[in-house]
C-alpha cells in the first residue's frame, strides 16, 4: 500500500495543521505523521512519528505534542510533486570493510537533502563497472542510506559516479573518493599522569596504583579473547610503577605486576613523567630514566619506549639522553582539541600540523644518536568525554574521519596508532574496551583494531618501515616551559640544584678514592629535581581559586620537590668535601676546578672563614690579594687552577704593607677594571655603556642594558623605571667593585641591580634582586638587553647542542621565545658578546613576544612560522598569564644572575663560558696542605667538557661522560692522573662495555656526548 501525506491548510484552531490523505481507495490501518508543526512552527522528529490507528477515510482530531488539532480528509487526486523534491545528495565513503561471504565490502553513506518516501534506485559507476541497489519506499522517510561497494572495489582513490533515481527526483553526482587501505589501527591504553592538578600528589599516586591493578584485572579477564582484543596497558611514566614495586616489594601484588611486565601485558614507558625539558639541565635529562633502569633490573626486561603527554615540544638534547638510556621509540602526545582545527591546541605551535602522524628518526646534533619519534596525531586526550569520547560511545565515525584524513594526506603506511585515555587525566582503564574491539573485529575485515603496547607497535613498525623513514635533526623548541616563570624563585633554585648535583658527583670522584658512592641518595635528589621540572605545576584552579586550601596544598606539594632536592644536594655537597675537613676550618684554602680546562676566576670563601689580619699565599710564596665583601664573604682571584684538581693557598698572618688598592669605580657610576668598562645611567639605572678598555666599540644601545620592563598579558601597558632612588657602592677593593642601583619598580616594592667587575677578569656580573609584590592581575617581568649589533647572528646554548634560531629548529616549533641552557651570544663578524642567564632560561628576541601567538582571533593559529632575529634580548623572568596549572601570582624575593662578556665573534666559546658560570670554582678552608691530585686531563686544543663523572656501580672504576661543546670534530687523548685505568670502553646506560675505547687517541664529532667506563687497576 502506498500513501502520501500532504500539507493542506491551517486549521481553525491556533497551532493546528491540516493534512490530506490519499489511500488510493485502500483503507489504511495505520497512518504515520512524520512531519508536523507545533504551535511555534517547530518540526517534530521524523524518527518518532505520530501513529494513529484506523485513520483512513475519516475525520479525526488528535492532541499530540502541543498540536491542538489534526484533520484528515479523503482526497481523490494527489500529486507526487507535492512531496519534498530530491535535488541534492552527499556522499561519504567509510574506511571500513565489512566481512561478507563474497569478501570484504567497503562501506559508504549517502545522505539526501529531503526524506525519501517513494524509494529510489541507486546506480554506481566506476569506470566500466556498474552496479545497482534499491532503496525501498518508506512511510517515515529515508534521510540516509548506508551501502556497500562490491568486494574488491574502491581500495584506491577513484572517480565514482552516483545516480539516484526516485519519483521524488533524480540526482547524479561525481566524486573523487579517497581509497581505503587494509588498515591496522593500534590503540595504546594508558592514563595521562598529572602529578598534582585535579588531585593532590599523594592522591594521584593512589589513582595510578588503582589504574595498574584494574589494568591487570582486565588483562586477566580478557586473556582468552581473540588476538588484538586482549587487554594490555602502557604506563606512560615510571613514577607510580617504581613506587608500587617498592611499596609492595616481596608481596603477591608486586610479583603480579612484575610477571605482567615480563609477559608484555604491561609496558613500562621509561620517562619519570612528562618533563619540561627546556628548563632541564644537561645531566638532569640523563637522569629522567633512572627509575626505568631500576624497574628493568628488578623485572629482568629491557625497556625501550618513552612517552610524554600534554607538553608540546622537547629540547634537542633529549634525543641524546633517550638514546644513551636505551630509549629507541618515543611517543610524544600533546593535548589535541578538535575545535581548534588542524592546529589541535592553542599552545602547541604547529607541532600537530607538521609532525602529527609523521614518524621520523630524530637525530642529535652530533649525528651519533637517534630515536624513532611518532607524535600521536590526535594527541593523548582525543577519547576524553568532551572530545571523541570512549570508543564504545563515539562509534566509528571519528575514527573513519581520522583514517580518511591520513589517506588524503598521503600517509604511506598501512598501520597507525591512537593514544587511548578516558575519563580525563589520571583516568582509569576503559572496562569495555576489549569487548568493543572484539565486536568490531568480528564485524569488520579491515581495519583491524588492536589493543597494543607502544613496544609491540613500534618494534613491528620499525621492522616493516624503518629503512624508509626520514631522518630529521633540529631543536623541537618547547612551548609550555614559560609557565615555570610563574614560580621564578623555585625554578632558579632547582636549576642551581641540578648544577650542584652534577658538580658534587665530580667532587666526590676527586676526593673519595675508597668511600662507597652514595648512589641512592644522589638518585633521590635527582628524582626530586626532575619532579619539579615535571609539567604539572599546581592546581587546576590556580587562577579561579588561588587562595583555596586545595590550590595551596598542591603548590606546597610541588614546591617540596625543589626544596627537598636543594636540601639533599647541599648535604651531599658537604659530604663530598668532607675529606678536606671543611667543617673544621684550617690554615689552607683549596680551590677546586671541576671543569676539564684550566681556569682563572674569582672565588668566594664563606663568611665563617676569618681572614682579618690574615693573607693568602700560593705554594710558591706569592701573596694573593683578598677582599672582604659587603655580605661578609671573602673574595680573591684564583689563577690557572688545573682541570679536575685543586690549588692550595696558605693562610698566614698579614705582614704590614703600605700597598693600597687601585679603585675600579669612578664618579660612583663607572666601573673599570682595565679590561672592561661599564657606565650606569643615572636616571634609569641601566648600563648605558659597555666597552672593552682601549676599544671604542659600544656594545650597549637604546636605553641601555639590563633595563626593567613590566607589562600586562600581551605586553600591554608597558612600564619601566622612570627614576632610580640611588646608586651606591657596595664593594670597592683589590678584587671586586660593585655598584648597587636601587629603584622603585612596577610590580615590586624595590628592585636592586648589582653590577660587578673583578680585577683581571673580562666579565661583568649582574645580580638583579626583586622584592616582588604578590599580584593576581596578569603580569610579566622582563629584563632587556639591547645590544649594538646591527645585523646579528644569535647563538643559543642548549643541552648537548647549540642552535641559531630558524637554522637548527625543526618545522612548526615555537619561535616566540626560547629556553636556554646557560645563555646566548649576539654578534656579527667583527664584534660579539655573550650573555649568560643561569637563573632565567627564557628569552625573546626583538620584542616581548612570548604570548603574541594568542593575539590571533583563531586561537592557536598565531604562532610564527619563521624566527625573528634581533640584537634586543628580553630575559623573560616572570609571568602568571597561564593560570591553568601554573601559579597565578608570586611574591617575595627573587634573584636573577647574568654575566656580560665580550668575545671573539669567530670563536665564541659560548657553551664554555656558560659552563663556567653554571659550575663556578669551589673555594673552601681546609686543614690539608696537599693539593688534590688531578683525575686526568685531555691533550690538545678542543672544546671537550666533562659532563659528569662518578664511581661505577660495580665499584671497579668510573663512568666518565664527555661532551664536545664545539662545532668542529676534535682529536684528543687522555693523560691519566690519580685514575690508573686498566681498561677503557664505550659503555651503555647499564655501564656495560660496548666496545674498546682508544684513550691514547680518539675523535669526537661536533656536540657529541660519549659515555665511558674506566676500569681502574
**Protein structure class:** alpha+beta
Low-confidence stretches: 1-81
What gap, in angstroms, lies between the N and C termini? 101 Å
Helix proportion range: 10-25%
Largest sheet: 9 strands, antiparallel
Residue-averaged pLDDT = 90
Number of helices: 15
Computed CA radius of gyration, to the nearest angstrom: 36 Å
Count the E strands.
58
Strands of the biggest beta sheet: in what spatial order?
Answer: 36-37-38-39-48-45-44-41-42
Secondary structure layout:
Elements: E1 4-7, E2 17-22, E3 30-33, E4 50-53, E5 70-74, E6 89-98, E7 105-116, E8 120-126, E9 129-135, E10 142-148, E11 158-166, E12 169-177, E13 184-189, H1 201-221, E14 233-234, H2 239-247, H3 252-262, E15 266-267, H4 282-286, H5 290-299, E16 305-310, H6 317-324, E17 329-334, H7 351-355, E18 360-363, E19 370-373, H8 391-394, H9 397-408, E20 415-420, H10 433-443, E21 444-446, E22 448-451, H11 454-465, E23 471-473, H12 488-511, H13 519-533, H14 549-577, E24 588-593, E25 599-605, E26 614-617, E27 623-624, E28 626-628, E29 634-641, E30 645-653, E31 665-666, E32 670-672, E33 676-680, E34 687-692, E35 707-711, E36 724-732, E37 736-745, E38 748-758, E39 764-772, E40 780-786, E41 793-798, E42 801-803, E43 818-819, E44 823-827, E45 832-836, E46 842-845, E47 872-879, E48 892-903, H15 910-918, E49 922-926, E50 936-938, E51 944-951, E52 957-964, E53 970-972, E54 974-976, E55 981-987, E56 993-996, E57 1002-1004, E58 1009-1016
Parallel strand pairs: 2-5, 13-20, 13-22, 14-15, 16-17, 17-19, 18-23
Antiparallel strand pairs: 1-2, 3-4, 6-7, 6-21, 7-10, 8-9, 8-11, 11-12, 18-19, 24-30, 24-49, 25-29, 26-27, 26-30, 28-29, 31-32, 32-33, 33-34, 35-40, 36-37, 37-38, 38-39, 39-48, 40-47, 41-42, 41-44, 43-46, 44-45, 45-48, 46-47, 50-54, 51-52, 52-58, 53-57, 55-56, 55-58
Helix pairs in contact: 1-2, 2-3, 2-5, 12-13, 12-14, 13-14
Amino acid at each position: 500500500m502506498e500513501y502520501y501525506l500532504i500539507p493542506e491548510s491551517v486549521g481553525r484552531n491556533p497551532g493546528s495543521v491540516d493534512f490530506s490523505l490519499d489511500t488510493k481507495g485502500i483503507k489504511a490501518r495505520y497512518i504515520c505523521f512524520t512531519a508536523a508543526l507545533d504551535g511555534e512552527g517547530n518540526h517534530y522528529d521524523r524518527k518518532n512519528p505520530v501513529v494513529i490507528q484506523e485513520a483512513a477515510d475519516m475525520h479525526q482530531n488528535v492532541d499530540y505534542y502541543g498540536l491542538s488539532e489534526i484533520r484528515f480528509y479523503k482526497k481523490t487526486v494527489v500529486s507526487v510533486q507535492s512531496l519534498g523534491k530530491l535535488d541534492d545528495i552527499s556522499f561519504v565513503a567509510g574506511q571500513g570493510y565489512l566481512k561478507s561471504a563474497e569478501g570484504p565490502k567497503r562501506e559508504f553513506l549517502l545522505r539526501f537533502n529531503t526524506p525519501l518516501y517513494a524509494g529510489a534506485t541507486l546506480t554506481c559507476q566506476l569506470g566500466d563497472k556498474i552496479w545497482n541497489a534499491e532503496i525501498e519506499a518508506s512511510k517515515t522517510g529515508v534521510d540516509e542510506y548506508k551501502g556497500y561497494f562490491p568486494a574488491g572495489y574502491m581500495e584506491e582513490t577513484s572517480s565514482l559516479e552516483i545516480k539516484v533515481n526516485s519519483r521524488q527526483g533524480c540526482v547524479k553526482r561525481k566524486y573523487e573518493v579517497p581509497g581505503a587501505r587494509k588498515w591496522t589501527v593500534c590503540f595504546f591504553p594508558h592514563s595521562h599522569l598529572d602529578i598534582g592538578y585535579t588531585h593532590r600528589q599523594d592522591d594521584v599516586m593512589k589513582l595510578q596504583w588503582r589504574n595498574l591493578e584494574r589494568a591487570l584485572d582486565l588483562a586477566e579477564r580478557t586473556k582468552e579473547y581473540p588476538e588484538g582484543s586482549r587487554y594490555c596497558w602502557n604506563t606512560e611514566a615510571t613514577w607510580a610503577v617504581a613506587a608500587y614495586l617498592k611499596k609492595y616489594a616481596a608481596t603477591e601484588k608486586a610479583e603480579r605486576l612484575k610477571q605482567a611486565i615480563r609477559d608484555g601485558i604491561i609496558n613500562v614507558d621509561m620517562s619519570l613523567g612528562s618533563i619540561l625539558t627546556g628548563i632541564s639541565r644537561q645531566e638532569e635529562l640523563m637522569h629522567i630514566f633512572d627509575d626505568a633502569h631500576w624497574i628493568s633490573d628488578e623485572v629482568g626486561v629491557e625497556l625501550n619506549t618513552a612517552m610524554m603527554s600534554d607538553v608540546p615540544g622537547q629540547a634537542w638534547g633529549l634525543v641524546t639522553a633517550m638514546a644513551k638510556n636505551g630509549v629507541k621509540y618515543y611517543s610524544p602526545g600533546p593535548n589535541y582539541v578538535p575545535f581548534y582545527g588542524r592546529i589541535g591546541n592553542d599552545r602547541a605551535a604547529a607541532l600537530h600540523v607538521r609532525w602529527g602522524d609523521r614518524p621520523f628518526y630524530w637525530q642529535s646534533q652530533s649525528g651519533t644518536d637517534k630515536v624513532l619519534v611518532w607524535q600521536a596525531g590526535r594527541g593523548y586526550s582525543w577519547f576524553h568525554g568532551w572530545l571523541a569520547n570512549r570508543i564504545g560511545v563515539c562509534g566509528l565515525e571519528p575514527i573513519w574521519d581520522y583514517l580518511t584524513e591520513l589517506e588524503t594526506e598521503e600517509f604511506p603506511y598501512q598501520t597507525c596508532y591512537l593514544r587511548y585515555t578516558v575519563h580525563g587525566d589520571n583516568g582509569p582503564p576503559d572496562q569495555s574496551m576489549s569487548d568493543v574491539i572484539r565486536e568490531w573485529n568480528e564485524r569488520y575485515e579491515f581495519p583491524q583494531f588492536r589493543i597494543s603496547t607502544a613496544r609491540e607497535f613500534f618494534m613491528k613498525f620499525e621492522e616493516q618501515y624503518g629503512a624508509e623513514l626520514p631522518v630529521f635533526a633540529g631543536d623541537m623548541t618547547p612551548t609550555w616551559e614559560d609557565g615555570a616563570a610563574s614560580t621564578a624563585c623555585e625554578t632558579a633554585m632547582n636549576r642551581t640544584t641540578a648544577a650542584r648535583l652534577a658538580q658534587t658527583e665530580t667532587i666526590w670522584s676527586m676526593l673519595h678514592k675508597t668511600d662507597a658512592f652514595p648512589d641512592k641518595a644522589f638518585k633521590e635528589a635527582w628524582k626530586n629535581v626532575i619532579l619539579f621540572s615535571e609539567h604539572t605545576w599546581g592546581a587546576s584552579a590556580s587562577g579561579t581559586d588561588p587562595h583555596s586550601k586545595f590550590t595551596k596544598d598542591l603548590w606546597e606539594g610541588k614546591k617540596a620537590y625543589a626544596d627537598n632536592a636543594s636540601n639533599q644536594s647541599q648535604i651531599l655537597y658537604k659530604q663530598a668535601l668532607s675529606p678536606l675537613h671543611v667543617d673544621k676550618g684550617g690554615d689552607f684554602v683549596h680551590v677546586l676546578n671541576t671543569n676539564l680546562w684550566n681556569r682563572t676566576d674569582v672565588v668566594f670563601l664563606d663568611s665563617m672563614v676569618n681572614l682579618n689580619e690574615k693573607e693568602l699565599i700560593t705554594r710558591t710564596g706569592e701573596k694573593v690579594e683578598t677582599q672582604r665583601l659587603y655580605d661578609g664573604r671573602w673574595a680573591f682571584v684564583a689563577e690557572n687552577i688545573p682541570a679536575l684538581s685543586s690549588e692550595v693557598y696558605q693562610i698566614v698572618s698579614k705582614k704590614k704593607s703600605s700597598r693600597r688598592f687601585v679603585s675600579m669605580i669612578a664618579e660612583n657610576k663607572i666601573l673599570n677594571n682595565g679590561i672592561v668598562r661599564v657606565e650606569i645611567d643615572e636616571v634609569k639605572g641601566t648600563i648605558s655603556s659597555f666597552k672593552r678598555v682601549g676599544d671604542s666599540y659600544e656594545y650597549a644601545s637604546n636605553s641601555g642594558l639590563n633595563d626593567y620592563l613590566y607589562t600586562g598579558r600581551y605586553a600591554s601597558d608597558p612600564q619601566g623605571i622612570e627614576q632610580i632612588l640611588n646608586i651606591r657602592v657596595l664593594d670597592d677593593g683589590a678584587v671586586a667593585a660593585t655598584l648597587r642601583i636601587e629603584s622603585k619598580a612596577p610590580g615590586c616594592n624595590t628592585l636592586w641591580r648589582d653590577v660587578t667587575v673583578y680585577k683581571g677578569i673580562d666579565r661583568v656580573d649582574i645580580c638583579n634582586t626583586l622584592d616582588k609584590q604578590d599580584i593576581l592581575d596578569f603580569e610579566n617581568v622582563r629584563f632587556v638587553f639591547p645590544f649594538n649589533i646591527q645585523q646579528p647572528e644569535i647563538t643559543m646554548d642548549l643541552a648537548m647542542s647549540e642552535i641559531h634560531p630558524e637554522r637548527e629548529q625543526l618545522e612548526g616549533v615555537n619561535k616566540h621565545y626560547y629556553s636556554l641552557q646557560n645563555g646566548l651570544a649576539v654578534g656579527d663578524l667583527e664584534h660579539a658578546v655573550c650573555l649568560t642567564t643561569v637563573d632565567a632560561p627564557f628569552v625573546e628576541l626583538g620584542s616581548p613576544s612570548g604570548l603574541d601567538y594568542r593575539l590571533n582571533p583563531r586561537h592557536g593559529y598565531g604562532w610564527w612560522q619563521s624566527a625573528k632575529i634581533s640584537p634586543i634580548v628580553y630575559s623573560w623572568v616572570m609571568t602568571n598569564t597561564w593560570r591553568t596549572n601554573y601559579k597565578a601570582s608570586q611574591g617575595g624575593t627573587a634573584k636573577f644572575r647574568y654575566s656580560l662578556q665580550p668575545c671573539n665573534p669567530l670563536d665564541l666559546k659560548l657553551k664554555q663560558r656558560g659552563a663556567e658560570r653554571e659550575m663556578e670554582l669551589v673555594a673552601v678552608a681546609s686543614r690539608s696542605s696537599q693539593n688534590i691530585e688531578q683525575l686526568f686531563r685531555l691533550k690538545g686544543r678542543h672544546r671537550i667538557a666533562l659532563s659528569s663523572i662518578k664511581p661505577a656501580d660495580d665499584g671497579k672504576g668510573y663512568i666518565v661522560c664527555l661532551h664536545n661543546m664545539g662545532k668542529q670534530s676534535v682529536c684528543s687523548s687522555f693523560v691519566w692522573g690519580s685514575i690508573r685505568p686498566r681498561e677503557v670502553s664505550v659503555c651503555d646506560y647499564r655501564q656495560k662495555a660496548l666496545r674498546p675505547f682508544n684513550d691514547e687517541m680518539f675523535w669526537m664529532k661536533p656536540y657529541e656526548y660519549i659515555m665511558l667506563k674506566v676500569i681502574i687497576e
